[in-house]
Design brief:
Blueprint: E1 3-6, E2 12-15, H1 45-48, E3 58-62, H2 109-138, E4 141-149, E5 164-167, H3 176-187, E6 194-196, H4 204-209, E7 216-224, H5 239-263
Parallel strand pairs: 2-3, 2-4, 4-7, 5-6
Antiparallel strand pairs: 1-3, 5-7
Helix pairs in contact: 3-5
C-alpha cells in the first residue's frame, strides 16, 4: 500500500500528506546524494499528534516522500502560489531551490504519469471516500491537513514564518466560525505567533476538498518545526518543546470540531 488509513469514530479526518519517508530503491540513483536525508519532510507528525485517538480522528498518512510525488499539489501540476517559488507535483528542487535530481534524471512525462497513478490517485481516492463515510455518519466533516516546515526558507518566503499558519483558502474552504475558533486557540498560546491565510493559505487538499456549503470544512495548519524539533540535521524531536505546543494543537482541533458541531446543531 502507498498509504495507511486509520478510521476513527468522530467527524474529524486528519491528512498528513508530507509525512512519508520512503523513496523506492529503484528510484534512488536518480536523486543527488543529499536527497537521502529527506530534509523537506514534515517530520514527526505522528508523534506530535499522538493525541488524535482521544479525539476519535481518522488519520490518513502516505508511505512515500514528497520527493517522489507531492500529494498536496493538483494533478495538472498548476502552481499553488503563482508569482512565488513553487515545488511541483513531482518536485525537482529542494526547498532551498537546489536541484533534487542528478543531471538528466528528473522524471519525464511518462514517469510523472506513473507516479500520479501509483501514489497520488490512491491517496486522494481514500481521502474522498473517507470524507463521504464520515459525512454520512455525522452529517459534516472537519478535514485537518497537517503540515510542518522550517521557519526560515528564503527560496520560498522572506523572513521568518509565524509559528502557526492557518489556511482556509482565504475563507473558501471552511466557515468563518471554524477559522475563528482555530485562530482563538492559537491566540491563547503564550509567545507563539500565528497567521490566518498569510503566506500559506492551504494547498490542493484544503482548496479542493473544503466545501462549507456541503458541510465539509477544511483547514490547513503549516506550523514551524522550531516549535517541536530541531530544524537542521538530524531533525531530532524535542520532547520539551513538543509538550508545550501539543495542548495548543489539541485545542485548535477540538475547538474547530466544536464550531462545526454548533453550525449543525438542531
Amino acid at each position: 500500500m502507498t498509504f495507511t488509513l486509520d478510521r476513527g469514530t468522530s467527524a474529524l479526518l486528519v491528512s498528513m500528506p508530507h509525512q512519508g519517508t520512503e523513496i523506492p530503491p529503484e528510484l534512488l540513483s536518480d536523486y543527488v546524494p543529499r536527497a537521502r536525508a529527506l530534509e523537506d519532510t514534515d517530520w514527526h507528525l505522528d508523534r506530535l499528534y499522538d493525541f488524535l485517538p482521544e479525539l476519535g480522528a481518522s488519520v490518513l498518512r502516505p508511505r512515500y516522500s514528497r520527493y517522489v510525488i507531492d500529494l498536496n499539489r493538483p494533478p495538472d501540476d498548476a502552481p499553488m502560489y503563482p508569482g512565488s517559488s513553487n515545488t511541483e507535483l513531482c518536485p525537482t528542487r529542494f526547498f532551498t531551490g537546489d536541484e533534487l535530481f542528478r543531471t538528466g534524471c528528473a522524471p519525464g512525462p511518462d514517469e510523472r504519469d506513473r507516479r500520479r497513478a501509483a501514489c497520488w490517485q490512491p491517496y486522494h481516492a481514500a481521502l474522498a471516500a473517507e470524507l463521504q463515510r464520515i459525512k454520512a455518519i455525522h452529517g459534516f466533516v472537519l478535514l485537518w491537513d497537517a503540515h510542518s516546515i522550517r521557519s526560515q526558507i528564503p527560496w520560498l518566503f522572506e523572513g521568518t514564518l509565524p509559528g502557526l499558519n492557518i489556511g482556509t483558502a482565504a475563507g473558501a474552504s471552511a466557515g468563518p466560525s471554524v477559522a475563528s475558533a482555530v485562530a482563538a486557540a492559537c491566540a491563547c498560546a503564550d509567545g507563539v505567533s500565528h497567521a490566518l491565510n498569510g503566506r500559506f493559505k492551504g494547498g490542493y487538499i484544503t482548496r479542493h476538498y473544503g466545501a462549507p456549503d456541503d458541510r465539509i470544512h477544511a483547514v490547513q495548519l503549516e506550523m514551524c518545526q522550531s516549535l517541536y524539533m530541531r530544524e537542521s540535521m538530524p531533525f531530532d524531536y524535542d520532547e520539551a518543546k513538543a509538550a508545550a505546543i501539543k495542548p495548543v494543537l489539541k485545542a485548535m482541533l477540538s475547538q474547530a470540531l466544536t464550531a462545526c458541531r454548533d453550525l449543525y446543531a438542531k
